[in-house]
Amino acid sequence: MLTDEDIKRIRKEFPILSREVSGRELDYLDNTATSQTPLSVVDEIKRIYTTSKANVHRGVHTLSQEMTALQEESREKVRKYINAESIEEVIFTRGTTEAINLVASSFGSRFKRGDEVILTVMEHHANIVPWQLLRDRTGIVLRVVDIDDKGVLNQEQYRSLFNERTVMASFCHVSNVLGTVNPVKEMISFAHSHNVPVLVDGAQAAPHLRLDMKELDCDFYTFSAHKMYGPTGIGVLYGKKKWLEKMPPYQGGGEMIAKVTFEHTTFAELPFKFEAGTPDFVGIAAFSKAIDFIDSIGIENIEAHEHALMEYTQERMMKIPEMRIFGTAPHKSAVISFLVGRSHPYDLGLLLDKQGVEVRTGHHCAMPLMDRLDIPGTVRASYAVYNTFEEADTFLKALTRAAAILE
Ligand code: PMP
Questions:
Q1: pTM, entire model
Q2: Ligand 1 pocket member 201 (CB < 6 A)
Q3: Where are the beta strands (DSSP E) in 115-210?
Q4: For 28-48, what is each residue's pLDDT tens digit?
Q5: Ligand 1 centroid to 33 CA: how many Å?
Q6: pLDDT tens digits for 104-163?
Q7: Contacts of 328 by beta carbon, 8 Å cutoff, 6+ apart
Q8: Most buried among 223, 244, 260, 348, by the most CB within 10 A?
Q9: End-to-end alpha-carbon separation of the chain, Å?
Q10: Residues 334-362 pLDDT 10s
């Protein structure tokens, strides 16, 4: 378990945490939307821009070779972080959203009218809309798994949705609203027993849980660097080589070709076939420092600390009159979505902001889940490794005050 001294040392890496909001020290509890970035990542971005910037994979000159090496070292670091078989299975994208669009568009090009894709009601729009776009093009059918009162997926229903028309299942590892950690290993294994490939949206798992692609055995896994103490605009698509090799390119352009004539083009080897154009190579290189940061603390230590904060907070929140917490699954990550009585989430959010507490309000890009819960939105507090129990207390005090005002 991380000590107070450990957290103090970690916080020194994040200068933003000592800024003020509304005249009070910042209490940043919007880590599910994006986490803050340590100096090691920021310094690496600055170092590259000031000493080493050159386009990757295109030159024989020293700077280009150096930059290419940095980008490819980062790919290897990501491979190791998720325990993928090879770097050919690690594709850099702009984020989770682009990674899922890539799969829906490219892998989905083999689907036919009437084929069925299984989703769940707790998905982020990033794992709904790409499949709807595919539905509009091809006539596939979307089937949706429901949740119970605690925000746990109905596994019986999930299993009952599989039939001879099922071609894909796509669901989140961790819900960005409910915090529910889904039993993805069992769900993948069940899908595979029906020969159905699986995409796991890991945007909310990659910053908090140990990932092992070989053990999970999923076909695709997606996540974003900006939620993992890394730079914005970078994401990862992990895909099994056997699928990636068969899939058509998602975008065409430079980097992704072997030979181009006006008559015919052949494509580059993996992973470059799916990386058209100049990537954010500076961000990709700096992402490797974010993984170093996580590794230096230990992902299990991060998870244990955040979980302790979440349990501490949730337990005390329940004592506030009219508190409604959405998502109380037994296996839950450090996300707390809530409302107080009939008050609107924006009112609560504004009253918290006035007390220096930064939480997210709204539908959290999960409108179908809001409809299912029959609410317009929630307030959401979420923790990262640098958050403290003092911050949890500040939040609880601010929330008690806001709830009393809105009563
Ligand atoms: N899926 C989940 C579960 C998320 O929480 C998010 C980000 N809120 C996304 C997908 C989309 O990630 P990005 O905006 O980085 O592409």
A1: 0.98
A2: yes
A3: 116-120, 141-145, 166-172, 198-201
A4: 999 999 999 999 999 999 999
A5: 8
A6: 999 999 999 999 999 999 999 999 999 999 999 999 999 999 999 999 999 999 999 999
A7: 150, 151, 314
A8: 223
A9: 38
A10: 999 999 999 999 999 999 999 999 999 99
Q: Which residues pair with 380 in a beta bridge?
A: 337, 360
d(CA 180, CA 170): 16
Q: Between vectors from CA 263 to CA 257 and to CA 265, what angle results, nearest 5°? A: 15
Pocket test for ligand 1, best of 125, 204, 287, 364 (most atoms within 8 A of CB): 204
pLDDT tens-digit map of 160-206? 999 999 999 999 999 999 999 999 999 999 999 999 999 999 999 99
C-alpha of residue 100 to centroid of ligand 1, in Å? 10
Joined tokens for residue 59: 């030159």
Atom of ligand 1 nearest to the CA of 172: 3
pLDDT band of residue 57 (cuts 50, 70, 90) is confident
Question: Catalytic residue positions?
Answer: 365
Q: Going by CA atoms, what residue is nearest to atom 14 of ligand 1?
A: 97
Residue 242 pLDDT grade (very low, low, confident, very high; cuts 50, 70, 90): very high
Q: Does the beta carbon of 231 sit less than 6 angstroms from any atom of ligand 1?
A: no
Strands, DSSP E only, in 100-165?
Answer: 116-120, 141-145
Going from the Cα of 227 to the center of ligand 1, the distance in angstroms, rounded, reads 9
222 lines ligand 1 (CB under 6 A): no
278-313 residue pLDDT tens: 999 999 999 999 999 999 999 999 999 999 999 999
Ligand 1 atom closest to Cα of residue 97:
16
Greatest extent of the chain over all pairs of C-alpha atoms, in Å: 71
Residue carrying the six token digits 């059918």: 141
pLDDT at residue 88 in the model: 98
Q: How confident is the model at residue 58 (pLDDT cuts 50, 70, 90)?
A: confident
Residues contacting residue 255 through CB under 8 Å, at least 6 positions apart: 57, 268, 272, 275, 276, 277, 278, 279
Residue to mutate (ligand 1; options 34, 96, 226; most atoms within 8 A of CB):
96
Q: Which two tokens stand for residue 211?
A: 């990932």
